[in-house]
Amino acid sequence: MPYLVSFHMGWLIGSVLLGFCMGWISVVQRGNGTSKVTARWLAVLAAGLVAASFAHVVPGRFGYWLDLGLIMFACYLVGCTIGAWLRDRVVSRTAPPAAP
């Protein structure tokens, strides 16, 4: 794992920066989002992929790609979280007070 991180550090930093930008610009949600059933299925899929990665179920090159994809996805989500949180802080601080 340390080799994977050190070799792909530029790509991982790019994932964090892309996630930060997407989190910054997508604070306002205008759609309905995903349903609870779809969210549960996606959570089960993500947990299954992480379990397969930890158990080394997928060997060789595809296992390497699975590990790299999961790490990049985690970096992207961290960047999204930080970007959305910072944007919320900036927008809430500069919002005018509500009229009585």
Quickly list its features:
single chain, 100 residues, mainly alpha, 4 helices, transmembrane helix, transmembrane, membrane
Main beta sheet strand tally, sense and closure: none
Helix content: over 70%
Strand-residue proportion: under 5%
Low-confidence stretches: none
Transmembrane segments: 6-27, 39-58, 64-86
Keywords: Membrane, Transmembrane, Transmembrane helix
Description:
The protein is mainly α and 100 residues long. The protein has a domain at 53-78. The protein is built from 4 helices and no strands. The protein has helices at 2-7, 9-25, 36-55, 60-94. Helix 2 (9-25) runs parallel beside helix 4 (60-94). It is flat and about 65 Å long. 8% of the residues are buried. Keywords: Membrane, Transmembrane, Transmembrane helix. The chain crosses the membrane at residues 6-27, 39-58, 64-86.
Task: Characterize this entry briefly.
The chain is mainly α and 100 residues long. Helix content is 78%, strand content 0%. The chain crosses the membrane at residues 6-27, 39-58, 64-86.
